[in-house]
Amino acid sequence: MARFLLATLAITAMYVGLQQVWLSLSPLAELYASRAERTWPEEAATVAAAARQADQRLSPEWHVGAFRLGYHVGYLTERVGGFAMSSDEVREKVRAITAPRLKSAEDLARAMGVEPMAVLPVSTADDFARVDERLEQDELGLAKRMEDKASLRHRHLLMLGMHLGVTVAAGDGTDGELLEPKRRFIGHHATLAAVPAAAWEPLTRVPEGATAKDRLANYMASLGELERAIGQLPPLP
Description:
Blueprint: H1 2-23, H2 29-37, H3 40-57, H4 61-81, H5 88-112, H6 125-129, H7 131-136, H8 142-149, H9 152-172, H10 183-192, H11 197-200, H12 212-231
Helix pairs in contact: 4-5, 4-9, 4-12, 8-9, 9-10, 9-12
């Protein structure tokens, strides 16, 4: 188990480093992100107009379902993809660890009528480094199926869950050492899904804590609060 943990830390650290290189190719990235964030309220109004009727027709359980499904997909993509080039033994251990979550995701996708459930295929370091962007591009087609089955709001709840799943999986695999939430994705989809800022803001930063494990535990507590808030979302007015 100790060797497995060391392998997890080493491989995940390498891939996260590659992700950071990919995302920092432009020196103006922060400026672009700041400008993009100012457009979120206008985008949210467009989403609300498009999703209002469908959102009012569906039960609140659909909000939580979309979020949970996205979380499972993001978590599995990060956790399984991080070991795509590891030994057969390591990959088998990862498959065993993630099997219950995979089944839960498959069952939920089937119940919501958006199957098949899948995770992003990863065969190279570049594939893994671009996971966030690939999820945004909807390579799996799952976001489109969720939008068609439910609404555009549910699509953004799904995407919100995906990016949080990626974040938590990286933290879980390293005992909290690699906990790097990305506001440009988390905040964007939460805002477009009309989730109150007070519920999602804490998840865009690393919380305080004496140790990495403490910080991860505090992050998970905030995640629980977010899911409760999503379960209480009113229909779009």
